[in-house]
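Consider this today:
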Amino acid sequence: MRTLIHLSDLHFGNIDPAIIPGLLDFIRVTKPDLVAISGDLTQRAHTAEFLEARKFLDAIPFPKIVVPGNHDVPLHNVFARLFHKLDRFCRYISEDLEPFYVDDEIAVAGVNTARALTGKNGRINRQQLAKLRARFVTLLPAHIKIVVTHHPFDLPPEVEGDRVVLRARLAMKILAQIPVDMLLAGHFHV
């Protein structure tokens, strides 16, 4: 059985630095097979925040899948938001916005739902769903299939009045057909 640690919404730039050593100790002691980080590594997508996030990621000695969140897209610089939306994420975190990890038990696909123009709720497109299907179709039925996104496809019971990722209904239909066993997302701070 695999051990997976899921982290989300770290928001470097607005995180209490005192929690980082304990979190890293927990990760090291747990010895996960994979650490999945589902976006919002930064608070406002500033270079200094990405550098802090990079330092944190480098301190994790285990395989990682990291996808961006809406806070990893520049907010106040409209030009950067539209034309360089994930450039800093790609420079400091990973150029692979849709990473994939597979071993003999699990297959984990990261999907970038962060967009420049959808506001805080994100979006998934048909090409991404086709890519997910193609990645999972060749696997054995025994593989546990996991999808990591920043924006959720469904709302937790405590969250009311907010929207899920755009095209969530279509995505859930396709993910059920694959079938995907587990969805990991962040975004809601509950």
